[in-house]
Write a structure and sequence with these properties.
Length: 278
């Protein structure tokens, strides 16, 4: 089948909600839905996470990571980890798990390499978005990090489908942007029940326009994407700043500049990136 026809078929399926997720992703989706319930409290969340030994171990490891363990006091229980991280951070980490599970299904070395690079890109964008939100645009940092985690979820879904659609990753990378990214991405975002403000910010990525200085969540995400040191392996976004050009982006922020803020925040960005790469 022609590659463009494949994009169109997958996009049509996504728009109808006919998405095929692996079993482990479906289990994580059920966990995410439970955590999104405002009546889900710490004890209930801890029990849900303890039901998955790998997720339980990961949650404790994240809680003990430098980004969330400023005191240096290590903890060993899931409940204590959930308490330290808080529900919003926990929701972001479960979203990160879902995204990585989508990209980690293939046994094809080429697909696995693309998934690994796409996740590394995603982790950089999420970490940068959190810091840019807090220090520059003053939108909610947790929401910005969450948006960074899910901003390439359509691409991860594409990678998960590569085995069923031979040749879909070949050819001009621009085809993905023109014929697949937005349509498939919208379907996956809807399936994951992504909050509307985050979905709108991801839509801004597909439009590719941002203001400088950045103001909105979409601007925050676009700037973080431009500044990420690892690019997406699926495409080069039209009009996106090159990595060389990204290093020249600067503007006044209060009494400082973007360069100053990023230099001051380099350790924080690296700590958040390290958590997402666990």
């Amino acid at each position: 089948m022609d590659r463009l026809d494949a994009f169109k078929q997958i996009a049509a399926q996504a728009s109808r909600g006919e998405l095929t997720f692996p079993t482990n992703v479906n289990a994580s989706l059920r966990l995410q839905q439970a955590l999104n319930d405002p009546d889900c409290h710490i004890d209930a969340a801890a029990k849900l996470i303890q039901a998955d030994p790998l997720l339980a171990a990961r949650t404790v490891a994240i809680a003990n990571a430098v980004a969330y363990n400023r005191s240096g006091n290590e903890i060993s229980s899931v409940r204590a980890a959930v308490q330290r991280l808080g529900m919003r951070t926990l929701q972001s980490q479960v979203a990160a798990l879902i995204v990585r599970q989508l990209g980690g299904q293939s046994s094809d070395p080429a697909v696995k390499a693309k998934a690994a690079q796409l996740w590394e890109h995603t982790a950089h964008v999420a970490a940068l978005a959190q810091v840019i939100a807090r220090r520059v645009t003053h939108v909610d940092p947790d929401t910005a990090m969450f948006a960074g985690i899910v901003h390439e979820v359509g691409g991860f879904y594409l990678l998960s489908q590569a085995g069923a659609w031979p040749g879909i990753l070949d050819g001009d990378p621009g085809d993905w942007i023109e014929f697949g990214e937005a349509e498939i991405g919208r379907g996956v975002l809807k399936k994951l029940v992504i909050p509307e403000p985050v979905a709108q910010a991801v839509e801004a990525m597909w439009v590719g326009l941002r203001a400088l200085p950045p103001e909105t969540l979409g601007d925050t995400l676009l700037l973080a994407n431009d500044l990420a040191p690892v690019p997406s392996p699926l495409q080069e976004r039209p009009g996106a700043t090159t990595l060389l050009g990204a290093r020249t982006i600067d503007f006044l922020v209060g009494e400082g500049t973007l360069h100053d803020i990023l230099a001051e925040s380099a350790h924080e960005v690296q700590a958040l990136f390290a958590v997402l790469m666990l």
